[in-house]
Structure formats: C-alpha cells, structure tokens
Design goal:
Elements (H helix, E strand, L loop, with lengths): L1 H4 L15 H18 L7 H17 L1 E2 L4 E2 H12 L12 E6 L5 E4 L2 E4 L8 E6 L3 E6 L2 E7 L7 E2 L17 H9 L3 H12 L8 H14 L1 H14 L4 H10 L4 H6 L19
Parallel strand pairs: 5-9
Antiparallel strand pairs: 1-2, 3-6, 4-5, 6-7, 7-8
Length: 278
C-alpha cells in the first residue's frame, strides 16, 4: 500500500509516545477545541452533529498558533500541499496470497471454490492472489489465469481455453479410463463414478471425486466399497463426501445387518411392549 501511494510507513516504538508527538498533540487539540465545546449540546441527527464538528474543525485550522505566526491551514498550503503527490489513477486494492497445487482436473481450490488454469500446469505449484473481486493465478512469476472471484462453495469457475484439446493430450485421463478403473472394484462403484461425471458440466470436473472414491476402495476394500456405492446410488447421494462418511461410520455394513431378523429387545421394566397400547 505504501508503494502504491508513494509514501513510507515508519512504525513508532512500543511505549514511546514521543515517536509520534505531533499525532498525540493533534488528538489533544481535537478533544480540547472541538469535542469539549460541543459536549453540552444536544444533536438530533448525525448530519447535525457532523456540521457542528466541521464548523469547529474549520475554526481550529484557521486559528493562528502561538510562536508560529500562522494557522494550520496556512502552514498546510505553504509546506504540505506543494510536496503532496497526485493520487494514483486507481485506488489501492488489498490482496492476500496463498500457495496451491493444480489438481488433475486442472483446477485449484480457493476457499472451497475451484478455478481453472491451463491444463498443462496439472501437478504444478502456483501462487494465488486474492482480492475482493478477482482471483489471479501466478506460475513462476507469470500470471497464467484470472477469474472474477466467486464465493459459491463447491462450485467451479472454468475457462474453456484452459481445457485440453483432447482427452489423450490431457495426460491420457479420460472418463472411460476412470470408469474402467472403478470397474475393478465393482459394478456399483463404476456406476457411481459414471454418475458423478455425468452430473458435471464437464467430465473433468468430476475427476477429483472419482479418484477419491477409487482410493477409498483401496483403503476399505472392494466389498465395503461396493456396498457403500450401491447405497449412495439408491439414496441419490452421489458424492465423494457421502461415500466417505458412510465408510467412516460403518453405515455401509448396516445394509447387510438389516436384511436379517432384529435381535430381541432386552428385558427392562420401562419397556412396555406393543401389548401396552391394545
């Protein structure tokens, strides 16, 4: 910000008020000559109070100071105004930076939203510059993508120019290859990944979830993965998070247990049974 406006920031030392004596004195003068004279007045609107403050401020700035033989307004016009620089053509925009890695779907994640970059950068580490209204993606000091910032979680912003010319050029990852890989786990898993890709505007946008599901199959085994995939398809919960939650909580195994007879309820005086309501 200082470089943008052509100024220097010199912080004061801790517990050293003399480092900013002029600032401290300006606060004292404002309290003494602006706030104190207005302390007993009653204002019925903010605009009325602001008008009174402006009147007192103009009086204070035009008041001649002892030993200076000039007012603050005169000194400003004589010393400060000639040294002031013109404002830049555009105001300073605050930005933050973060590191990210380009995923297999040629998108980077920023605050749960996904932004595309040229597909050749898959697997590369990039720097993301974030402002309130824009997202810039920088690779080795060169800006490779720019998008309007979106705050929609779980959605994606994709530039068509960033897509690969063909699936073969895109590191040989194709929807058919992912479905074929999922078939090694089972039919339900294959139908699940196929459904995930079908619900995306571009199949590549579902690659991340599909590869995650395939990894879950290796972690929990093909049998449990098939049960979870079948349950997800039946419930319409076709997402990586839903399947992961089922496997982590053991919900996929409840399907088999539910097919058998329920165990009898334990005997307890507070359990009245169905005959109580007859």
């Amino acid at each position: 910000m200082a470089a943008h406006y052509g100024c220097v920031v010199i912080p004061a030392r801790v517990r050293k008020p003399k480092d900013k004596a002029k600032v401290e004195n300006a606060v004292l003068q404002a309290e003494r000559w602006i706030l104190a004279p207005l302390r007993n007045r009653t204002f019925f609107s903010l605009a009325e109070a602001n008008r009174a403050v402006r009147e007192r401020l103009a009086w204070l700035n035009n008041r001649r100071m002892r030993g200076m033989e000039a007012s603050r307004a005169e000194l400003f016009r004589r010393i400060d105004l000639p040294a002031m620089l013109p404002l830049p053509p555009r105001p300073y925009e605050y930005a933050t930076f973060k590191r990210a890695r380009v995923n297999i779907d040629y998108h980077v994640e920023v605050d749960k939203h996904y932004y595309s970059v040229p597909w050749r950068l898959v697997g590369e580490e990039v720097e993301v510059r974030l402002t309130r209204s824009a997202v810039e993606i920088i690779h080795r000091g060169k800006r490779v993508a720019s998008h309007p910032r979106s705050y929609e979680r779980g959605a994606a912003t994709t530039c068509c120019a960033h897509r690969p010319a063909s699936h073969r050029a895109y590191l040989e990852w194709t929807p058919s290859r992912i479905v074929s890989w999922a078939t090694e786990t089972g039919e339900a898993t294959a139908r699940l990944v196929e459904r995930i890709m079908a619900e995306k505007p571009h199949p590549e946008m579902g690659y991340r979830a599909c590869l995650g599901i395939i990894r879950l199959g290796k972690r929990y085994g093909p049998e449990r993965m098939e049960q979870a995939a079948a349950r997800a398809l039946a419930a319409g919960a076709v997402s990586y998070k839903s399947v992961k939650s089922m496997l982590a909580s053991g919900l996929d195994q409840e399907c088999e247990e539910g097919d058998g007879e329920r165990p009898p309820l334990p005997s307890h005086p507070n359990l009245r049974g169905p005959d109580y309501y007859n």
